[in-house]
Structure of Reverse transcriptase domain-containing protein:
Amino acid sequence: MVSKAPDIEEIKEAVYIINKDSAASPDGFSSLFYQYSWDIIKLDLLDAILDFFNGREIPTGITLTSIALIPKKAEAKEYKEFRPIRRNIGDNILLAQELIQNIDRKTRGGNMVLKLDMAKAYGNSFIRGLNNLFSSNVDLHFRYGGGIPISHLAFADDIVIFTNGQKTSLNKIMRFISLYTVNSGQAINCNKSSFTTRKEAHRKVIADNTGFQYQSLPMIYLGVPLYKGHKKAALFDDLISKIKRRILGWEHRWFSASGRITLIKHVLSSMPIHLLQILDPLIGIINKISRMFNNFIWGDSSQTKKIRWASWENICCPVEEGGIGCQSLSDLNIAFDCKLWWKFREQKSLWSQVLLAKCCRTSHASVVNHSYQDSGIWRRMVKARKLTEPHIAWRIGEGKINFKHDVWLKSGIVQGRLKQDMPQDKLVLDFRNNNEWNTISLNSILPA
């Protein structure tokens, strides 16, 4: 509880705790700036903080967040034709992709996905109502083999409902949607809304009851194709087309070599990022995009070909090693693999919790294997585990970390040093009492 406004020393301590290498805020100033310029700015910063504690209005710029807009279609001009991309959008897509893998799971009525096109962002009353509907009707739930029931995913004006395909289930959901639209004035565009199910016999019934269009897989959700089965090159066709259009749009403009390098680094290289965070690209796709980038940097056009004085691999090397520092898509993909594993191990998102319950029921995440039935995302992550896991260590904190498999000692995991085997799910907190180590229990399993 804050009983008084902070003084200059408390503020300084807070500023210097922040990692100086952390990302800058939208105004471009990182914590390194505040630490390096402390003697110059400290009084101004103190005044600003005291203004906050004295009830002064916060300037708009302080509450800004970094939001990027990606077009929903080519040549988008109006705001509604763009999709806001924020930090948690990837979690929604990852979870949707995981659920789609089980759309043909055997269950009465089959699994079904409804994708609603709403005229504007949904209200909290819609989400509360949907949660209440599913919590009071267990027959509505989408069956995917996990222990956490998922009824819907919502982001801005995109809502995807995961449910059972029986007619009774469908009627309950459509009745709820109808009541919501009448009471809220919110409109749902039936022509742009869609449904997906693998049960062919149910498609006409669903279409007649909802007025929605049938959507086969892959279906686009938040700019990423959701698919079932083996990954195909066609999933990346839209990305390839967007890069081609961007390059063709520059074809009749003259750029210097440094101008082309700048466009590669800051425009073209950023285009695949949103998709590559979710989908593990085929080698052929990486090679194809890399060739397009290489052709552009050497000045190729649709009519002429230029000499390549260096390979794309050498161009992507750091400047210190003779390259120009362009981003290697292969290296970027490895980084995303590792990032996915770390996000999963953190267990801070619904997606990671669902994956843990589904794929790690009896074994710890660091040792569980994958099978051919697992999703492509889980197989991708398990491949990255060998590279990522040795670099992960945990603070004891409340002790909610695995005693046997997690790294919580500087010397590494304790698994190979145990006197006797122990259950996989034993936590560090099981060997502590009132924040003190239970030495008797520890001595019984660890060598002296």
